[in-house]
Amino acid sequence: MKTEKMFAGLNKEEWGEALKDQNEYLQKEYGYSIDAEAVDAAVMNENAEEAAQFMAFMARSLKDGLSAQDETVLSAIQKHIACLRRTMEIDAAGFAAQSRFFLTDDFHRSMLEGQQTGLNYYLCIAADHLAARETE
Known about the structure:
This protein is mostly helical.
């Protein structure tokens, strides 16, 4: 699917199709299913655009050699967590745990590493640093 189409906004059926592979993977590996009927297309469109911008920033930061502890990186993660909070309960520690999970999950690791080699590990290290800093 073209990025321009995705951010022009998908409808509920298009989101169901876009999430099909991930949903099948989650069902097979974890016995979990995304409820396509519960998808709010407007919220999904907004979240997808924010997530894409966040991941592009993280990939660029890695490629440009920014430390995973750089304040701009940590600030971007904080902003991303704030966006995630619109649809789920999550804090820096939860985001760090999610990032560690992505290291072990084939689907998510491939998705992140496909954007930029090393991105999964960079994100995990940065998230762990932020979580540790916020618990001090």
